[in-house]
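User: Reviewer 2 asked us to show a designed sequence for the structure in our supplementary figure. I'm pasting the structure tokens here. Could you produce the per-position amino acids so we can include them in the response letter?
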């Protein structure tokens, strides 16, 4: 197994998280299992249960963190599959909160590779090699990862704003903007001034967003999302739950997303 695959399959990698970029032969099992989940496993419940959602809009819930590179790739893979199937009007995507490192100090930053090296035991040189491979993989999805100047941050405030943005129908746009700002532009998203620039760019009300940041608003909603992920047995992100019954764990091969969504559309 290559160094890249070893790191990808680790269950506790902090900001890198665990996920795999491809899975040629996904297996199927219960989505509500509390057993340790293999990131190569695609889960499915009884087909009779899935018949209940026939003729209804498909709801795909996604647990992810803004600073997780595999979550960004998983987002692109999901959106690409929906578009390829011409299912934009038939699929509702709901972005749920998940924090890879909720204990990381707020208003603090640490150099990305230094942080990962301490958490994983790999050298910075090894991690940079992995980052280069991930950058190449991301290019196929229009992602320009720029790991060199990234800083590790606490993402609670970003998730609170993402939750707030749902009422305006701009949640997905804000999530994309945060990810571009973090992974490509290397903006310091622990700096509220920088965050509010993104809020304005997306077309949201800056004054209202500032009020959210100055209070504890939506913190419980974020925690509720995290608690629900725990109840589902989620041990890594991205995690996709289709109609509350079928789950995909990790940034799987494109065909996995296409197959699952296509099957749900046919029900």
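Assistant: Here is a per-position design you can include in the supplement:
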């Amino acid at each position: 197994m290559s160094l890249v695959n070893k790191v990808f399959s680790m269950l506790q990698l902090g900001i890198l998280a665990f996920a795999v970029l491809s899975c040629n032969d996904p297996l199927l099992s219960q989505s509500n299992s509390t057993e340790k989940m293999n990131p190569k496993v695609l889960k499915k419940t009884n087909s009779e249960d899935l018949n209940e959602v026939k003729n209804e809009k498909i709801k795909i819930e996604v647990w992810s963190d803004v600073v997780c590179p595999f979550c960004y790739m998983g987002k692109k893979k999901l959106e690409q599959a929906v578009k390829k199937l011409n299912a934009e009007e038939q699929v509702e995507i709901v972005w749920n909160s998940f924090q890879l490192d909720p204990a990381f100090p707020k208003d603090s930053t640490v150099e990305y590779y230094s942080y990962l090296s301490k958490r994983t035991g790999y050298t910075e040189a090894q991690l940079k090699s992995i980052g280069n491979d991930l950058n190449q993989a991301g290019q196929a999805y229009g992602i320009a990862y720029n790991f060199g100047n990234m800083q590790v941050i606490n993402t609670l405030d970003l998730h609170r704003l993402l939750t707030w943005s749902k009422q305006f129908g701009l949640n997905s746009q804000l999530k994309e903007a945060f990810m571009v700002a973090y992974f490509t532009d290397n903006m310091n998203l622990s700096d509220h001034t920088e965050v509010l620039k993104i809020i304005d760019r997306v077309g949201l009300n800056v004054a209202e967003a500032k009020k959210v940041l100055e209070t504890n608003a939506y913190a419980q909603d974020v925690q509720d999302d995290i608690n629900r992920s725990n109840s589902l047995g989620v041990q890594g992100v991205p995690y996709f739950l289709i109609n509350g019954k079928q789950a995909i764990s990790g940034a799987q091969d494109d065909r996995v997303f296409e197959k699952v969504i296509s099957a749900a559309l046919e029900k």
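For the response letter, you might also mention the following. The longest helix spans residues 69-84. The two ends are 39 Å apart (CA to CA).
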